[in-house]
Amino acid sequence: VRPMSELSETIAREQIRLAVLAVPAGAAQKVADAVCRAGIKGILNFAPARLHVPEGVTVRPVDMAGKLQELNYFINANADDSKKD
User: Fold this and answer.
1) Quick one: which of 61, 39, 41, 40 has its CA closest to 50?
2) Ranges for the CoA-binding domain (predicted)?
3) Contact yes or no for 39/54 (Cβ under 8 A)
């Protein structure tokens, strides 16, 4: 984790190609714009927002709420199975 003021320098120096966005929806596009300007080519987006990025940048959204709901389902199913034994 680094300050945003060091973003471009760090991405260039470390030859970083991928970014993980885990920011509020209202900040997601601004952060995506910044990482794209810095040279990022792929974004894993945990923010509940649709991102608009330049051609050549790939975005993969992650539905955190959906994944938590799925996890809760399996936890409850496992608990129900153990009660049957």
Assistant:
1) 61
2) 4-48
3) no
- The domain that holds 10 is classified in CATH as 3.40.50.720
Residues 33, 83: Cα–Cα separation, whole Å: 50
Which pair of structure tokens corresponds to residue 85? 């034994």
- Name the residue range of residue 68's domain: 4-84
Q: What is the pTM of this model?
A: 0.81
CB atoms inside a 10 Å sphere around CB 40 = 20
Rounded distance between C-alpha atoms, residue 84 and residue 55, angstroms? 53
Q: How many domains does the chain divide into? A: 1
Is the distance from CB of 51 to CB of 32 less than 8 angstroms? Answer: yes
Query: Reading across the β-sheet that carries 58-61, which strands appear in turn?
Result: 18-21, 42-45, 58-61
Average pLDDT over residues 5-26: 96
Tokens of 9: 């320098």
